[in-house]
């Protein structure tokens, strides 16, 4: 519990929050239809990849640059991260992603916003099946 009182811990949690906020803002922003025509899947993939790479490079020395809850969970399961730090990172990442999506929602015009980059299930796939596929992948 001494870890919770250190400034390094809170600096790392703040870095994860900001990294997740920027990751959601940049990645989702690139996946919106800013121009007429079909969406650019390659552009969105590159935006997410470059955003992740840049954020890891920028924040890695502060928090490890996890930015993604799946990475934090993997580090916890591999005993490379303490439980209090993992919980702090997970909360910061979820709140950061919500804040990033909220900022994007607020600054994006309605016609461009659409579903804000949220994909839908194929008509033949139920919510339970979709959840299992997401968990497995």
TrEMBL record:
> One GO term of the cellular component aspect?
anchoring junction
Give membrane topology per the record. Answer: Multi-pass membrane protein
Cellular localisation: Cell junction; Cell membrane
Q: What is its main location?
A: other
Q: Which residues form the signal peptide?
A: none
Q: Name one Pfam family in it.
A: MIP
What's in the keyword line of the UniProt record? Cell junction, Cell membrane, Eye lens protein, Membrane, Transmembrane, Transmembrane helix, Transport
Catalysed reaction(s)?
H2O(in) = H2O(out)
Q: Name one GO molecular function term.
A: structural constituent of eye lens
Q: Which domain of life is it from?
A: Eukaryota
- Extract the InterPro entries matched here: Aquaporin-like, Aquaporin_6, Aquaporin_transptr, MIP, MIP_CS
Q: What does this protein do?
A: Aquaporins form homotetrameric transmembrane channels, with each monomer independently mediating water transport across the plasma membrane along its osmotic gradient. Specifically expressed in lens fiber cells, this aquaporin is crucial for maintaining lens water homeostasis and transparency. Beyond water permeability, it also acts as a cell-to-cell adhesion molecule, forming thin junctions between lens fiber cells that are essential for maintaining the ordered structure and transparency of the lens.
Q: State the protein's name.
A: Lens fiber major intrinsic protein
What is the organism of origin for this protein?
A: Toxostoma redivivum
């Amino acid at each position: 519990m001494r870890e919770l009182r250190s400034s390094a811990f809170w600096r790392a949690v703040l870095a994860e929050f900001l990294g997740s906020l920027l990751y959601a803002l940049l990645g989702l922003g690139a996946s919106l239809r800013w121009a007429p025509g079909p969406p650019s899947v390659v552009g969105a993939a590159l935006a997410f990849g470059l955003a992740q790479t840049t954020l890891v490079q920028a924040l890695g020395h502060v928090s490890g640059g996890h930015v993604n809850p799946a990475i934090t969970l993997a580090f916890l399961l591999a005993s490379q991260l303490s439980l209090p730090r993992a919980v702090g990172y997970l909360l910061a990442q979820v709140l950061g992603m919500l804040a990033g999506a909220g900022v994007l929602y607020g600054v994006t015009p309605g016609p461009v916003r659409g579903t804000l980059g949220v994909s839908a299930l194929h008509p033949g796939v139920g919510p339970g099946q979709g959840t299992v596929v997401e968990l497995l992948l």
